[in-house]
Amino acid sequence: MIPLYFAPLQGYTDDAYRRFHQQEVGGATAYYTPFVRWEHGGVRSKDLRDVRPDFNEGVPLVVQVIAASIEEFRHLLEVLTPLGHRRIDLNMGCPFQLQARHGRGAGLLGNVEVVREILNEMNVRSDFHFSVKLRLGWDAPNECMQLLPLLNDARLVQVTLHPRLGIQGYKGTADIEAFAKFAEECRHPLVFNGDIRTPQEATRIMERFPTLHGLMIGRGWLARPSLGRELAEGREWSRTERMALIKRLHDRLHAHYAAIVPGDAALHQKLKTYWDYMEEEVGRKCLKKLKKAGNLKNYLRAVSEVV
Ligand SMILES: Cc1cc2nc3c(=O)[nH]c(=O)nc-3n(C[C@H](O)[C@H](O)[C@H](O)COP(=O)(O)O)c2cc1C
Predict the structure, then answer these.
(1) Closest residue (by CA) to atom 14 of ligand 1?
(2) Is the distance from the beta carbon of residue 223 to the nearest atom of ligand 1 less than 6 Å?
(3) Ligand 1 nearest-atom number relative to CA 35
(4) Within 10 Å of residue 252's Cβ, how many Cβ atoms?
(5) Where are the domains of the chain?
(6) How remote is the CA of residue 183 from the centroid of ligand 1, in Å?
(7) What's the alpha-carbon Rg for the chain, to the nearest Å?
(8) CA-CA distance, 233 to 237, in Å (whole number)?
(9) What is d(CA 77, CA 36) in angstroms, rounded to the nearest whole number?
(10) What's this model's pTM, rounded to 2 decimal places?
C-alpha cells in the first residue's frame, strides 16, 4: 500500500482527534495539521497548543503553515523550531477569502515572486524537510503548471495536489485530467488529494496513477474513520465494525472534551461537528436526529441510538 496521509481539516482534525484516531484505528502514514498562521505579530495559542509535542505523542505529524510572505514564513519556522518540528508543509490551497485575499493559501499561487522567495528559503534551511500542498490555481488551472518549474527545482520531499481551483471552494469534482497533466511533469514524489470516500475510489486513483507516491484523504476519512486501515488491510470492514469504531472514537472525544470544555452547551456544540460528514455512514434520519438534538442530553441519547 502506498503512504496514506490524513488531510488537514481546520475545526475537525485537531490534536485530540488525531491522537484518538491513531490509537483507535490508525492507518495513516502521517497526519497533516491544520495550518498554523502568523497573525498580528504572533501565532494563536490555540494553534500552538495543537502542535505541542506532548499533545501529539505517538502521532506521525506534518505541521502545516500558511504564509503570504517570506517574513511570515520565517517567523513561523522560528516558532516551530523550539517545539522540535522539522517536517513542514506549506499551504498553497486554502480557498477561504479570509486567507486568500491576503495572498495566503490558494491566494499565493498567482504570486510567483513570493513563491520563489519562500522556495529559496526552503533550499537554504537544510535543517527542515519541506513539502507543499496546492490547488490547480486560484481561477485558472495553468497557475500550478506555471509554478511547476520552480517547484521542481526546490528542495521538497513531496508535493500534494488537490485538483480544484481556489474559486471552486469544495464544489464540483476533482479534475483528474488536470492532475494527470501536472503529474507528467512533476519531478517530486506526488500525492493525490480530493474526493476519495471509499476503498474503491482510492483503488481507482492508484490504478489511474501507478507511480503515485501517496494518497491524501480528508472528508472521506472523517466520514469513515476506518478507511485507511481498510485500505492497508486490503479488506472492507463490515458496517458493524465501522459503526463500533465511530462510536468508540466519539466516546474518546466526549471524555476528552468533557474535561476541558466548560458547560454542557459548549460541549454539545463541540461534539456534534463530529458527524458533519457522516451522512452516508449513519443515514439521513439518524444524522438529522443528531443534528437536531437541542441539548447535550438529547444529543447523547441520539448518539446511543446510532447503529
Ligand atoms: C472544513 C475544512 C477545513 C480544511 N482545512 C484545511 C487546512 O487547514 N489546510 C489544508 O491544507 N487544507 C484544508 N482543507 C482542505 C482538505 O485538506 C482537502 O484538501 C480537501 O478537503 C479535499 O480533500 P478531501 O476531498 O479528501 O476532503 C480543509 C477542508 C475543509 C472541508
Answers:
(1) 9
(2) no
(3) 8
(4) 17
(5) 4-233, 239-304
(6) 21
(7) 19
(8) 10
(9) 10
(10) 0.98
CA distances from 37 to 118, 135, 181 (A): 15, 19, 31
Q: Which CATH superfamily is domain 4-233 in?
A: Aldolase class I (3.20.20.70)
Atom of ligand 1 nearest to the CA of 105: 11
Distance of alpha carbon 8 from alpha carbon 18, whole angstroms:
10
Per-residue pLDDT of the chain (307 residues; tens, 9 = 90+): 999 999 999 999 999 999 999 999 999 999 999 999 999 999 999 999 999 999 999 999 999 999 999 999 999 999 999 999 999 999 999 999 999 999 999 999 999 999 999 999 999 999 999 999 999 999 999 999 999 999 999 999 999 999 999 999 999 999 999 999 999 999 999 999 999 999 999 999 999 999 999 999 999 999 999 999 999 999 999 999 999 999 999 999 999 999 999 999 999 999 999 999 999 999 999 999 999 999 999 999 999 998 7
Report CA torsion sign: 131, 43, 250, 273: negative
- Which of 4, 6, 9 has most ligand 1 atoms within 8 Å of its beta carbon, as the pocket-test mutant? 9
User: Is 79 close to ligand 1, i.e. is its CB under 6 Å away?
Assistant: no
The helix or strand, by DSSP H or E, that contains position 292, with its residue range, turns out to be: helix 284-292
Look at the block and give the residue holding cell 460541549.
267
Identify the residue whose C-alpha is closest to ligand 1 atom 6. Answer: 9
Ligand 1 centre distance from Cα of residue 94 (Å): 8
**Candidate from 10, 62, 273 with most ligand 1 atoms within 8 A of CB, to mutate:** 10
